[in-house]
Amino acid sequence: TYNGVAPEEALLDAGFVGGSGDQQRAVAALRWAVESPYTAPVVNISYLWGADNTLNWIDRVFDYWARRELVLISVAAGNSGASLGSPSKGWNVLSVGGTNDYNTINWDDDTMYSNSAYINPVSYYGDREKPEVVAPATNITAMSMGNTSLERSGTSYAAPQVAGLSALLIDRDNTLTVWPEATRAIIMASATHNITGTTGIVAGQDQL
């Protein structure tokens, strides 16, 4: 009844259930997914810690494993309506904000999800732009335990859609399996529908 973005792809559950102070377990789950024997080419994490404008240790850890294991990591930007949570601020992860598409096929009525995080992290040259892309985040139908459906909102439901898109790209061109920077570039370059403002990212500006 309900198909996701990439319904034919295989899924691995790393078994991480988030909670306060569980950053070390999140990193262990990431390593389980990306190191041999699994080496998943795409990872999604829809759990965040904090909301500020600085790079924290878990941002750096996810950044490191994305680069070391050549994996595309899709991370929810957060629902603060302001600063991003961690680990979505890493250089090598793909941060995903949220939109409200009002369940129509037209773009004209699309708006940003009101709680989507958008403030750029602090950087030496003021050139960090986060999140890189957005996806629908309101009234998303998903499957729950016992094969029952539920409807939820938040960037946690936007990020898996981008992870699914990444899987489809890899399925189309297998060289992207070990080329996550190219996958990120393709997704960003093809995101030509700006919800607000002109098409393209304006450097140094925090845009909704």
Observed structural traits:
single chain, alpha/beta, 4 helices, 208 residues, globular, 14% strand, 24% helix
Descriptive overview:
With 208 residues, the protein is an alpha/beta fold. Helix content is 24%, strand content 14%. The protein has four helices and seven strands. It has helices at 23-34, 57-68, 159-172, 180-190, and strands spanning 42-45, 72-76, 94-100, 111-112, 133-136, 140-143, 149-152. The strands form two sheets. Strands 1, 2, 3, 4 and 5 form a five-stranded mixed sheet that branches. The chain has a two-stranded antiparallel ribbon with strand order 6-7. α1 (23-34) packs parallel to α2. The longest helix is centred in the C-terminal third of the chain and has 14 residues, at 159-172. It is globular. The mean pLDDT is 90.
Question: Which helices and strands appear, and what pairs or packs with what?
Answer:
Layout: H1 23-34, E1 42-45, H2 57-68, E2 72-76, E3 94-100, E4 111-112, E5 133-136, E6 140-143, E7 149-152, H3 159-172, H4 180-190
Parallel strand pairs: 1-2, 2-3, 3-5
Antiparallel strand pairs: 3-4, 6-7
Helix pairs in contact: 1-2
Mean pLDDT: 90
Unreliable spans:
none
What is the 3D shape? globular
Main sheet summary: 5 strands, mixed
Radius of gyration: 16 Å
Say how many strands there are. Answer: 7
Helix content: 10-25%
Task: Write the element-wise H/E pattern from the N-terminal end onward.
Answer: HEHEEEEEEHH
The span between the termini is 34 Å
- Number of helical runs? 4
Percent strand equals: 5-15%
Structural class, judged by helices and strands? alpha/beta
